[in-house]
Design a protein that fits this description.
Elements lengths: L1 E2 L6 E2 L6 E8 L2 E3 L13 E6 L15 E2 L1 E3 L2 E3 L2 E5 L2 E6 L6 E5 L6 E6 L4 E6 L3 E7 L6 E7 L3 E4 L5 E7 L2 E8 L5 H6 L2 E5 L11 E3 L25
Parallel strand pairs: 4-20, 6-10, 9-15
Antiparallel strand pairs: 1-3, 2-3, 3-17, 5-16, 5-18, 7-8, 10-13, 11-12, 11-14, 14-15, 18-19
Length: 232
């Protein structure tokens, strides 16, 4: 993973020092073949401040995070939020949904709710929460909760941008669903933004896992085969 850093014309409200838009490029490396994975999207990089850079925003000041249910899909299918954020799950489909997560991150079960309604979840612990619908097995998404407000998600070409990063020391973290937790932990390191130092270390994400979308329902059972039919 290679990052190229550029400065932006923004100002940190706390210190008056200029903030920077941190831009970079990520590459997933297929272990075994040594080749670059063509689709380098869905890698997340976030920076945890090691110095006091500005007060953490209260929930009322944070964006309105939403994961919409539409066309039997979640939009977006990857959402990154700071720890403590509330995410709304509006149902914009003309049928019922039943959203739940039983993975390592935030465990929740919103139960059955009808078209036009919405429910919300507070993500109060860091980690990846895989989100499913108990009615429609094709609906899969991830909410990644991080202990930071500086983060970015790579696109298919591997481009990534983290806006409004004040100068200071940070601990860099990386997440990709194709890498093992051990490989991701090995990529963590200290970086410095500002004071003439605009370089980040060269990193590579080893892609060793193939993500399967097959899963059980919230009761640990197989889905009804009729669930994949258009009228279900």
């Amino acid at each position: 993973m290679i990052f190229f850093i550029s400065a932006a014309a923004q100002t940190n409200d706390l210190t008056g020092q200029p903030a920077q838009a941190v831009k970079g490029e990520v590459r997933l490396i297929q272990v075994g073949s040594g080749g670059t994975v063509m689709d380098s999207s869905r890698a997340v990089v976030w920076l945890v401040p090691l110095d006091t850079v500005r007060p953490i925003r209260f929930n009322a000041e944070r964006p309105n995070y939403r994961m919409v249910q539409r066309g039997k899909t979640f939009e977006p299918n990857l959402l990154v939020v700071p720890t403590g954020s509330v995410v709304n799950f509006p149902n914009l489909d003309p049928w019922f949904h039943s959203v739940f997560s039983l993975y390592r991150g935030k465990r929740f079960d919103l139960g059955l709710y009808e078209a036009g309604s919405q429910k919300e979840v507070r993500f109060d612990r860091p980690g990846a929460s895989y989100v499913f619908c108990n009615i429609h097995p094709e609906m899969v998404a991830v909410v990644l909760t991080v202990d930071a407000e500086f983060y970015g998600i790579s696109d298919k070409a591997g481009h990534i941008s983290i806006p409004d990063v004040p100068p200071g020391r940070y601990l860099l973290h990386v997440w990709s669903e194709n890498a093992t937790p051990e490989a991701l932990q090995a990529l963590e390191r200290l970086i410095v933004i500002g004071n003439g130092n605009h370089g980040l270390p060269t990193l590579s994400i080893p892609a060793t896992r193939q993500i399967s979308m097959k899963h059980k329902n919230k009761f640990g059972r197989d889905y009804d085969p009729k669930a994949l039919t258009p009228e279900y």
